[in-house]
Amino acid sequence: MTRTGSTGGTYSATPSGLSISSSTGAITLGTSTAGTYTVTYSIAAGGGCSALSTTASVVIGTAPSATISYAGSPYCTSGGTATVTRTGSTGGTYSATPSGLSISSSTGAITLGTSTAGSYTVTYSIAADGGCSAFSTTASVVINTAPSATISYAGSPYCTSGGTATVTRTGSTGGTYSATPSGLSISSSTGAITLGTSTAGSYTVTYSIAALRWLFGS
Question: What is the mean pLDDT of residues 151-178?
Fold first, then answer.
C-alpha cells in the first residue's frame, strides 16, 4: 500500500472478505477471499476541518493449484491414446521432456502410436495472472515399444519320422509357443516340434507375447 498526504486515518474495505489492517492498510493475502474490493482511507473531522476519505481498488486473484496423473502408465506404442487426469485449476498448457512424446498442449492427451518409447516428464503450466505467480506441476509417463514378431516352419509339411522341426522367428523375443488342436509335441519356450511323438494332422502354432499374438497356420 502507498499513501501520500495526511496521516492518522483508518482503512476499511467493501465488500467483506479482505483481511486488511485498519491502522496500516496492509492486506494479508493468504487469508483474504479472492475478489474485487474498494479500500477506503478515512480521516475523521477535527480542528475545524471536515472529514476526509479516499478510495482505491484492490483485486485479489485465486492462486492456481492443480495435480495431473496418467494412471495407465506404463503405456505401449500400440495403445491408442493416453488421457490425463487433472484436478484443480483449468487453463494451463501441457508439455513434455525430453522430446519424442506426441502430446496435446491443450488437453494433455498423448498419441501413443506416434510417440517414441521412453520415460517422460509431463508438465502442466499456468501462467502468472491477476497478481498470482506462475504455477506448474508434473507427472511421469513411460512408453514401451510394442512387441512385433513373425514365425514360420519352412519345412512344412513334415513326416512323423523327420526328427525335430525348428521354428524361424523374427522380431521380439520372450514369447511362448502353443498349438491347436492338441497332438503336437511342441516346446513352449523354443517352438521346436518333436515330430516322432506328434500326431499327424494340421496345426496352428501360436507365438504369444503378453497381449500380442502372431499365428502360423500349417
Answer: 94
